[in-house]
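FAQ
Q: What does a multi-component entry look like?
A: The components come first, one per line:
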Amino acid sequence: MIFVGHVMAIARKDLLAEWRNRESFTAMFYFAFLVLFLFNFALGADQALIRGASSGLLWLAFTFTSVLGLGRSVQGELENDCLEGLLLYPTQREAIYLGKLLGNFSVILVVELVILPLFAILYNMDLWSQIPKLLLIAVPGTLGFAAAGTLLSSMTAGLRAREAMLPFLLFPLTIPLILSAVKGTEVVLRGEPFELAMPWVKLIAAFDVVFLVTSLLTFEYLVEE
Amino acid sequence: MVRVENAGTRLGPAPAIEARRLVKWYGSQPALRGIDLVVAPGEVLALFGPNGAGKTTLLRILAGRARPTSGAVQIAGHSLDRDSDGVRRAIGVLGHGHQLYEALTARENLLFSAAMLGLDQPREHVSEVLARVGLEAASEARVRTFSSGMKRRLALAKVMLREPKVILLDEPYASLDLQATKLLEEFILAKKSGGAATILATHNLTMGFGVADRLAILRQGRLVFEGRREETSVEAFRSLFALYGELGAVE
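Then the predicted structure of the entire assembly, as tokens:
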């Protein structure tokens, strides 16, 4: 119960700070809009081309904006030595990790939910009927990406070149997860039966478990000197 | 008067802080070179030393935030190696950074601390410490709008929320006005009478002298002086400190 209380307190604190500042959200949304807008121009009106590239484009926007959010989240903890203060509380390190993950995951998911309609409008796609199926891929995909990202952003927090190091480490590590999410999303966007996307969903779920377990086991060693 | 001593055989209550042969290297740079230190419950040790002497490193190790290269630490009976959670439960730390979230209000910062400390009736506790540090009127203002003195007061309020057996203060007088300094001294003395041990690392000889039972000088990672306050005067200690400062500069 205490453990859950700590997780919720950290996540609530992060979300409250984000709600007040809206720094991450604004930066993430603007970046996603720019990516989708520019590719919209580049691909033109060729619907076949758009259909072929759409799932990749969507996850390009999702993952790039997520990296922005993850970087800003750890930046908030570095200001005024807050991370040091957080680590001085009598709480398990796993609770700190899960609290940060919950905060990051929630912010990224909200941005994705705003991006989806924008994507539908810009690329003239009827997504509304597909939204529940898309969420079945986007939610676990985002969870896995946020799980690895929260761990790596904490690991690189002490580095001078942390903003460069985070994507440098995160993208190679999460390539299998991103590819699975892209393939699963492709099935949904083509309007094919969701059963065809299930192998990809299972693969994403497997990566989620791997990233979560690994992160919970290693977080303590990465944040302690 | 000058006495360089290692923590030897002890009698009486178990020490609140016990460090044995603490050594810390940062790469090829020694930060601490074999510190033996014992602080009894209810005792205040003022730790002086020039910049780079190792004061902050020593406090970070005692707080469990840095790992010693070798040596052992016990805080309120908890071994740093085996029970770091127990150590964190026993300590209150006021460090260089104020460790406050600037987007949150003063009250929200303290409520977060109260939640992390698992306090019962957190709202009552928070209101009480806000009143104690004189920030009740500013409790709903975001910390971003605070002066550095107000942030320092709020950081002190965070320490007050805890019931620490060991208090570690690193340059606590920085940015504090006279009223807040008095508040800090009252807090240290109240905790002292409640049996909490305090290590106060400071450059402020007068302030350190005012609350300390024991004085120590750390220079180049070594404890070069340790003595009881009543054995010396501020002036004599100032001369001694200047002498060690000189030695440090020469070396």
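Q: Is there any commentary attached?
A: Sometimes. For this entry: Confidence is low (pLDDT under 50) at residues 1-10 of chain B.
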